[in-house]
Amino acid sequence: MPLVLVSFIQKLTAPIPRTIQMKRVITYGSFDLLHYGHIELLRRAKAMGDYLIVALSTDEFSASKGKQAYFSYEQRKVMLEAVRYVDLVVPERTWGQKSQDIDEYGIDVFVIGDDWVDTFDEQLEGRCEIVYLPRTPEIDASRMKECCDTEEARVL
Question: In a 3-state reduction of DSSP, which class is residue 41?
């Protein structure tokens, strides 16, 4: 491969230097049956910084919580990557990885739904800003899943 092309590829794949002061935001979730409420969360999270990372629950992690996603991890990842507010999707494999993610990705703001208030404060306090966003009230993901589990929906 020509040296010029190798140099160009190295520049493209190099990590973003921290001298560029980008405010990095991270959020977590399963994002199953992606809906308006999810998009609103992602929009609001992105508005808090320059670069939004979504840590997406893997199928195995969901199963460890007693949940099964309607769509596979790979399908949910593709959908999230298509959302303009999302810059990077990474796997969420364990409850405890949040501290590691904050260090690894240089996170400035941790954003999650307000149903998790106080859950991560002790673990993350002093490491980044923690923001709990209110849920979109008119969306009920559990109800959506119930509808998808009907015999009629399975035929579709």
Answer: helix
